[in-house]
Design brief:
heterodimer; A: 3 domains; two-stranded antiparallel sheet; 21 helices; B: mainly beta; Deoxyuridine 5'-Triphosphate Nucleotidohydrolase, Chain A; nine-stranded antiparallel β-sheet; 4 helices; about 10% helix
């Protein structure tokens, strides 16, 4: 009878785990996905698993076998991303918009959009994560060999599953796209002498406020206390900057839709909640104010107000004018600033933010120039797209056959917001409240419009290339 | 009833007033407007029957869940959908339509596809004022599998004048993709009478 061997047991266990996980990925592989990225991610994970299986077979190192066991278990988490990335759960239009934006900003990246149970929007590049996870499992040449045939970036983009078909709210992704831009700015700014100057001013001001406490400290405890002040300020400053730059990017890419989406998300929140650990989000009122300032500065708010009421479906102009007034009233209240001033840390970090943010916004403007929204769309495209929505048509084109012009997808989304904000429609000559089904129809029509817009542009490009 | 020819179709597409305009969007090629019909394309959504989950379709039953016995497939552009001999599937049109209130239509196969055995529509009448994508009923009556690609022009919409019509506002309005059939929800049938009125007076032998 063969003696029991823990090494052999571990090997069998690992091979069983690897086989089980490969089978689960194989099952998902046959799903319909809106892009090829989910299958690319599955291919990569399968390559990793095959190589792990080879390594397990030839290894007798207990520590290594335990490491592989944990690694394979943690790879199970990736099932969730690809399992929910199939077309039943992921609107094609959303993927197409994101590909349009990210493909322009970062042409070497691929993306996978998946709905998550949590009410959260996020973007994460999965490649550095996978590389880090596996760097101790393979030697360098094997590691390089696995990853070299895959793109530079595989971005996992998640959105709340509840909001899956709400293409209007997905304007929030402008914010997520802003995060890497904010990080780039902060990485440059940290090396700038202005960073040290800003930090010094802020920390000295905090120390002044906390003088009573500081006077009781000495030696190491004083050093530690001062370090805590600096660390706290940097954390609050960076998080505030990340969020506010990202909000600004969202407004630059999506125009007024970004503000309507933020309002939709914040309406149930305390608008003046101060930044709190661990996320340190800026007050929602401040975020709305910054977005509004960007939109006002670019002429969007004036353009919305200048729309010809008689050209729009009944109720649209009045309702949106009222909503804009409501937003102005919200941002004109300064309670958020009062709340921020109650804590010396937060007050100083936000004074610092106020001084640096304009420079960051200018940086972001240059970064996203190629994918920026244009204020002219409000006047040139949105009114007719609203008429189309009012007739139950997708807002994908303007003009009359054969001179129809493909609209910009940003205009389609904005028209969707303005029509939905009206909350009323004409039935048999009377203005009546929209039903929930009507709102669903708006989402469906805008989703379809975005798909048509991207297809029509691709088709026109094809005709141009073949000289058609 | 006069079938609308090329010039009338173009004139309807060109109508300045949205209420009188025939909308076919996206109309990727002007040449889709033919002699007396408009060529229309396959969309990306296909509905396939999951026969293993379905005993039969009983229009009087309220319990059948479309999702249980029909599976939706999304086929991307440049990907293939295999339609096997004898297979029946539903597919949405790529285009979205809006018919004026005085125009009705029907969908039929394009002859080139018909000759391969593909039948496009068994009963697709399009009502005046209809707004939405059309659900095509595809059957392969040929002997060999057919490969279908989304975007292919497989059907044609034939239109005619329709006097005294009422605008269609039924449950298929504003749909943007192929829809599951809901025969049991059909409000215009007198199903209850046909199912129950003679129940006690007749006998059906066990099969």
């Amino acid at each position: 009878m063969a003696a029991f061997s823990e090494i052999s047991y571990l090997k069998r266990r690992n091979q069983t785990l690897i086989l089980g996980l490969r089978k689960r990925f194989d099952e998902i592989y046959s799903s319909d996905f809106p892009t090829s990225t989910p299958s690319l991610i599955i291919d990569l994970i399968r390559d990793i698993l095959v190589e792990l299986s080879n390594q397990v077979e030839s290894s007798s190192d207990e520590d290594y076998l335990i490491l592989v066991s944990r690694l394979v278990q943690s790879f199970g988490g990736f099932l969730e991303f690809v399992d929910n990335a199939h077309t039943d759960q992921t609107p094609r239009a959303l993927v197409q918009i994101l590909e349009d934006i990210l493909g322009t900003i970062d042409p070497n990246s691929n993306l996978l959009a998946w709905p998550q149970a949590k009410y959260n929007y996020s973007i994460l590049d999965i490649l550095p994560v996978l590389k880090r996870m596996t760097e101790n499992a393979f030697n360098k040449s094997t590691h390089d060999q696995i990853f070299h045939k895959y793109p530079d970036a595989l971005k996992l983009i998640s959105f709340p599953r509840t909001e899956r078909d709400n293409i209007l709210l997905h304007s929030v992704f402008g914010h997520e796209i802003g995060h890497p831009i904010a990080d780039d700015f902060l990485a440059i700014y940290e090396l700038d002498p202005g960073f040290q100057r800003g930090l010094k001013t802020a920390s000295l001001n905090v120390e002044k406020d906390l003088q009573a406490k500081i006077s009781k400290l000495s030696g190491l405890s004083l050093v530690q206390f001062r370090k805590d002040i600096v660390d706290g300020l940097i954390k609050i400053f960076k998080r505030g900057m990340q969020e506010l730059i990202s909000d600004s990017v969202s407004a630059m890419i999506f125009g007024p839709s970004a503000m309507f989406a933020l309002y939709d998300i914040f309406i149930a929140d305390d608008l003046d909640a101060i930044p709190m650990a661990p996320e340190f989000y800026p007050p929602s009122r401040m975020r709305l104010r910054i977005v509004n300032e960007i939109l006002t500065g670019s002429g969007y708010i004036a353009a919305l107000k200048k729309l010809d009421k008689n050209q729009l479906p009944q109720g649209v102009y009045d309702s949106n004018t009222e909503l804009l007034k409501q937003l102005e009233a919200i941002i004109n209240v300064t309670d958020d600033k009062g709340e921020l001033n109650k804590s010396p840390f937060i007050r100083e970090a936000y004074n610092w933010i106020e001084a640096v943010l304009p420079e960051a916004i200018e940086f972001a403007k240059k970064e996203i120039e190629k994918v920026a929204c244009s204020v002219s769309l409000v006047k040139e495209e949105v009114p007719e797209l609203l008429t189309r929505l009012n007739l139950g048509l997708p807002p994908n084109e303007i003009g009359v056959f054969p001179e129809t012009q493909v609209a910009n997808w940003r205009s389609a989304i904005l028209a969707g917001w303005l029509y939905r904000n009206a909350a009323q429609k004409i039935v048999n000559g009377h203005l009546v409240d929209m039903s929930i089904k009507d709102i669903e129809t708006i989402h469906t029509l805008v989703l379809r419009a975005v798909e048509y817009i991207i297809l029509s542009n691709d088709y026109a490009e094809h005709l141009k290339n073949k000289g058609g | 009833m006069a079938v609308l020819g090329h010039d009338r179709l173009k004139s309807l597409l060109r109508s300045e007033d949205y209420n009188d305009r025939l909308i076919v969007t996206p109309l990727l090629l002007e040449s889709q407007v033919g002699e007396a019909s408009i060529d229309i394309r396959l969309g990306n959504d296909f509905i396939v029957t999951r026969r293993g989950n379905l005993g039969s379709v009983d229009p009087s039953s309220q319990s059948q869940s479309g999702r249980r016995y029909q599976a939706k497939h999304f086929i991307n552009y440049s990907q293939k959908f295999y339609l096997h001999p004898g297979e029946f599937v539903l597919a949405g049109t790529l285009e979205y339509f809006r018919l004026p209130k005085n125009v009705a239509g029907f969908v039929t196969s394009r002859s080139s596809w018909g000759r391969t055995g593909l039948v496009i529509a068994t009963a697709t009448a399009v009502q005046p004022g209809f707004t939405g994508a059309i659900t095509l009923e595809l059957v392969n009556h040929g002997d060999v599998p057919l490969i279908l690609y989304p975007g292919l022009s497989v059907a044609q919409l034939v239109l005619s004048d329709c006097d005294g019509a009422k605008e269609y506002l039924g449950r298929f309005s504003y749909s943007a993709e192929a829809l599951y059939p809901k025969i049991s929800q059909d409000k215009n049938t007198d199903m209850k009478f046909w199912k129950e009125a003679y129940k006690d007076k007749t006998h059906q032998g066990e099969s």
